[in-house]
Amino acid sequence: MPSDRLRSVARPVRGRAVGTGRDIRRRLQAYLIVAVQAGLAAALSWFVAREVLGNPEPTFAPAAAVGVIAAALGNRARRTIELVLGVVLGITVGDLLILLVGTGPWQTAAIVFLAVSAAAAVRGTGALMTQAGGTAVLIATLTPTAPGLELPRTINALVGGVVGMFVVLVLAPLNPLRTVRRVAGPALDLFSRQITAAAEALARGDARRAEEVLDRMRETNAELARVDEAINAAHEVVRLSPVRWRGRRRLAAYRLGTEHMDRAFRNSRTLVRRIGTTLRSGENVPADLPAAVELFGEAVRLLHREFLAAKEPVQARERVLAAVRHAGAACRQDIGFSGTIVVAQLRTVANDLLRATGVSHGEARRLVRQAARPQPGAA
């Protein structure tokens, strides 16, 4: 008995540990290139600032370069501009106030307050305000003991920003399509597994399991955020990096598909919520209804595979329309109010999935309406 209890306690702990390890491995695979870029940018910016420009204190150059690399993926160009502008703003405000009020604790507070306020006034982001405030602190506290700090710091900021962008766009740019697929893959796999689990709960009349699926779907915001981040980073690379210009067209299609997949995922939460309501209400569930939900899960899996193989997602479209046909058949049977809403939500998600496969808005609506009609020869 004690050993059985220990096993029952250890099983979920082991499952969470395996899931955490899998998540860490995926993140390392997806973002290892960022670590490589940061190391290259730090070394190269230090060399340029110290050996090429003769700056005896080049510390801020690699710090600025790493700051650019570590910025939110897809926002590095903007981060570079904000970094340099923040330094210049901090220096300007700091020098002006030191001339007027001198240095000291309250003067430092006033200088930082005005530098950050100036950054906020020009609608600067957190990065711009951080750089302006940090530079103002250095100017206010180090100017009496280290005059002439302004020009070296500005040059270092420029060196770090330029070198950071050179590394991410020319020297070691990420492979945009590979990065997107590597990050989107787990999200699509998670999506398909949850839809399949919802279909099983509907087929078995298990309302509690449907609620568990919905809870898991609510916890996937981090996965969706990583997909958006990877898409933005890939878009920045193919837009600015000459090395990756050839991937523009394929990434544009993938980006559009991912946007519609994101919408399909969010609409699927409403679908699963209604499945739970249907089961709790004890409504009749025709066999065609869980079959339709299961076909949606298959469509997502096929879409993932066809994206990875760079194929036209024909099979995914066929599964989506088959799901709509089953949902239509279920709606024409003895079905309750919540079940009818499940069918309507299935059609909404079907439209999203068809758009993700590259079908236009009007064509997707036409195909869904056509598939929902009674089929010739149907009873």
Tell me what the structure shows:
- With 379 residues, the protein is mainly α.
- The protein folds into 2 domains: 29-171, no CATH class; 176-372, Methane Monooxygenase Hydroxylase, Chain G, domain 1, CATH 1.20.58.
- It has 14 helices and no strands.
- Helix 8 runs antiparallel to helix 10 (248-280).
- The longest helix has 51 residues, at 2-52.
SSE blueprint and pairings:
Blueprint: H1 2-52, H2 60-69, H3 76-101, H4 105-121, H5 126-142, H6 150-171, H7 176-204, H8 207-218, H9 221-240, H10 248-280, H11 288-308, H12 314-331, H13 337-356, H14 361-372
Helix pairs in contact: 1-2, 1-6, 1-7, 2-3, 2-6, 3-4, 3-5, 3-6, 4-5, 7-8, 7-9, 7-10, 7-11, 8-10, 9-10, 10-13, 11-12, 11-13, 12-13, 12-14, 13-14
Task: Compose a concise summary of this entry.
The protein has 379 residues and is mostly helical. The protein has helices at 2-52, 60-69, 76-101, 105-121, 126-142, 150-171, 176-204, 207-218, 221-240, 248-280, 288-308, 314-331, 337-356, 361-372. Keywords: Membrane, Transmembrane, Transmembrane helix.
